[in-house]
Amino acid sequence: MIRFALRCEKDHEFEAWFRSGDDYDRLAGEKAVNCAVCGSTRVEKALMAPAVARSSRTRGMDIVKVDAGREAAPAADEKVQLATSDPRERALRSAIRELRQKVTERADYVGNRFAEEARKIHHQEVEPRGIYGEATSEDAKALAEEGIDFYPLPSLPEDQN
Q1: pTM assigned to the model
Q2: Residues 118, 133: contact at Cβ < 8 Å?
């Protein structure tokens, strides 16, 4: 196993483990390596400090915190949140991206006028068409009560940045 320091197109830095350097190259080429922060598949290797051997008292893999380029072992009782990348999660993220892309390519962006335009379409005041935009939670509740069909556009991690 080999650990690489990685950086995405938005300069998020994170680390990931791979079976080999060739395995990283293959996965990166298939856009199967995602930024741990925003989900971007535009990822490249970043500069990484060399590994330093630890004392024989240390067993297994140490979890380290990176602070301004320096590594420090966490306190023995300090909990660190960890996760691995699940192929099902990658597939779900990919499907969400694809759905969002299709909606935004095929529908008209109406911005804050979403509720107004959805009502016009529902009441056949305008030609039916796909739309997307923003609405307040009050507007969404009113649309649902009026029987107007809509759904929230899935949010992606990079939308939160």
Answers
A1: 0.46
A2: no
Give the chain's length: 161
92-129 pLDDT, tens digit per residue, is 878 888 888 898 899 999 999 999 999 999 999 999 99
Q: In angstroms, rounded to a whole number, what is the distance separating the alpha carbons of residues 106 and 98?
A: 12
Q: Of 138, 54, 56, whose CA–CA distance to 64 is shortest?
A: 54
- Which own/partner pairs from 36-40 qualify as long-range (CB within 8 Å, at least 24 positions apart)? 36/12, 37/8, 37/10, 37/12, 37/157, 37/161, 38/8, 38/10, 38/12, 38/157, 38/158, 38/160, 38/161, 39/93, 39/156, 39/157, 39/158, 40/8, 40/9, 40/10, 40/12, 40/158
Widest Cα–Cα separation across the chain: 76
Contacts of 77 (CB under 8 A, 6+ apart): none
Place of tokens 């990919």: 94
Instruction: Tell me the C-alpha distance between 13 and 7, whole Å.
Output: 4
> What confidence tens digit (pLDDT) does each residue in 18-72 have?
888 888 888 888 888 888 778 888 888 886 655 544 444 434 433 333 333 434 4
Q: C-alpha 18: how far from its chain's center?
A: 20
Helix segments in 30-113, DSSP class H: 87-106
